[in-house]
Automatic annotation (TrEMBL):
Belongs to the plant acyltransferase family. Pfam families: Transferase (PF02458). GO terms for molecular function: acyltransferase activity, transferring groups other than amino-acyl groups. This is Spermidine hydroxycinnamoyl transferase. It comes from the Eukaryota. Coiled coil: none annotated. The keyword Cell membrane does not apply. The gene is LOC113848290. Keywords: Acyltransferase, Transferase.
């Protein structure tokens, strides 16, 4: 796709904001600390524009205004030693890029993810010092048909999914001329950010999520698996197919002790896990883990303040051997996932914080060291991660010219990286966006659909 970059601007908060250093919580500094991309496509009506109104002006003006309450996003990260970070709130601003494409939105077909998206999403050079990298980059691309795309990448070290969507939704509200709905709660002390370990420590839980994930049997490292070419697909499940899977999971295995049936997430993710084991041709005794991202906001005691801005999601792992996943009913896989999710209590979260505070160095827990290298966490073969966007307000982002015609997760090309999204029509369907090695994708699709078509 031919894309021409026209201009790049630094957008700073419209009004003076607090400047200083903010300690990050332990959850901010582990896992994904790179930027997470999303992309939206629009067909603005021609009569939306007036002589004094342009799409770039609207976006930049509202962005400058939303950065006042969300001023941490206008700052920069700094390494402070031992793999630890702090946030300097210095109003250096975010980057806004304007681009044009000679293609049309129709050229993108059904908007299935492809390498073309790389031209529509801002890119960053992570070999640069981290304090030189903006925390937010926005790219506006105009197509010759009059359609546009708006893509963003937001630093996961500063905002998790709910916080990033909170920022984006408030940005659209200000762009429409409406007031802020929910002020962000910026005090990370609720997670004891910047404080020393507790003495004596609280009750300790076993945190298997911090252990290196298993390797393929017979291998001493995952270097070769990291090098293999990947492909991305978005697979749709109708409401009927989702209900079929839930029925199979709940009737074919021991019902959870609390009587609450397995959820959409537990069921569909279990199905993805089993299908991946089959597609990858695992031996029966192959250990495999599934990374599950759990939002702790409502699980803390007391629950976190409304609008908590930062990372309150943490990864836990479901474990099994491939043979059990593929030979036992779907409910078994769902039960392994349920067990991992239910571990996340207030006590468990605080135990994890203390575990991380006592680590001499956090480097081995961070993905920034995994990019283009053989270091850092790798959740590819024989493992995978499935992140749920099922409850996030990802659709209906209206900057003033109407809702999007398509929303997607941008680019993701790491083996085992996958997302669950609600269908855009609100009809109960689900989308599974996943990345697998090219050699495994066709087999995955076959196993994924064979029992539910």
């Amino acid at each position: 796709m031919p894309v021409t970059f026209k201009d790049s601007y630094t957008v700073r908060p419209m009004d003076p904001t607090w400047c200083g250093r903010i300690p990050l919580s332990e959850w901010d500094q582990i896992g994904t600390i790179t930027h997470v991309p999303t992309i939206y496509f629009y067909r603005p009506p021609q009569n939306w524009l007036t002589p004094h109104t342009t799409i770039p002006t609207t976006l930049k003006d509202s962005l400058s205004r939303v950065l006042v309450p969300f001023y941490p996003l206008a700052g920069r990260l700094h390494w402070i030693g031992n793999g630890r970070l702090e946030l300097h709130c210095n109003a250096m601003g975010v980057q806004f890029i304007e681009a044009e494409s000679s293609s049309t939105l129709n050229d993108l077909g059904d908007f299935s993810p492809s390498s073309e998206y790389h031209y529509l999403v801002p890119s960053l050079d992570y070999t640069l010092p981290i304090h030189e990298l903006p925390l937010v980059l926005i790219q506006l691309t105009r197509f010759k048909c009059g359609g546009i795309s708006i893509s963003s990448i937001i630093s996961h070290a500063v905002a998790d999914g709910p916080s990033a969507l909170h920022f984006t939704c408030e940005w659209t509200r200000l762009a429409r001329g409406e007031p802020l709905q929910t002020v962000p709660f910026l005090d990370r002390k609720v997670f004891r950010a910047g404080e020393p370990p507790l003495m004596p420590p609280p009750k300790f839980h076993v945190h298997t999520e911090f252990n290196p994930p298993p390797l393929l049997l017979g291998q001493n490292d995952n270097i070769e698996e990291r090098k293999k070419k990947t492909s991305v697909a978005v697979l749709k499940l109708s409401k009927t197919q989702v209900e079929t899977l839930k029925k199979e999971a709940n009737e074919g295995w021991h019902r959870p002790s609390n009587g609450r049936g397995y959820t959409r997430y537990e069921t569909v993710t279990g199905h993805v896990w089993r299908s991946a084991c089959m597609a990858r041709g695992h031996q029966m005794e192959q250990p495999t883990t599934l990374g599950v991202c759990v939002d702790s906001r409502s699980r803390m005691q007391p629950r976190l303040p409304k609008g908590y801005f930062g990372n309150a999601t943490l990864d836990v792992v479901a474990t099994s051997v491939a043979g059990d996943l593929v030979s036992k009913p779907l409910g078994y896989a769902a039960s392994r996932i349920r067990e991992a999710i239910e571990k996340v209590t207030d006590e468990y979260v605080r135990s994890g914080i203390e575990f991380l505070k006592k680590q001499e160095d956090l480097t081995r827990f961070q993905d920034v060291h995994a990019i283009g290298s053989d270091n850092g966490p790798f959740y590819g073969n024989p493992n995978l991660g499935v992140v749920s966007w099922l409850t996030l307000p990802i659709y209906g982002l209206d900057f003033g010219w109407g809702k999007e015609v398509y929303m997607g997760p941008g680019t993701h090309d790491f083996d085992g990286d996958s997302l669950l999204l609600p269908g855009p029509d609100g009809d109960g369907s689900l989308l599974v966006a996943l990345c697998l090695q090219v050699a495994h994708m066709d087999e995955f699709k076959k196993h994924f659909y064979q029992d539910i078509m």
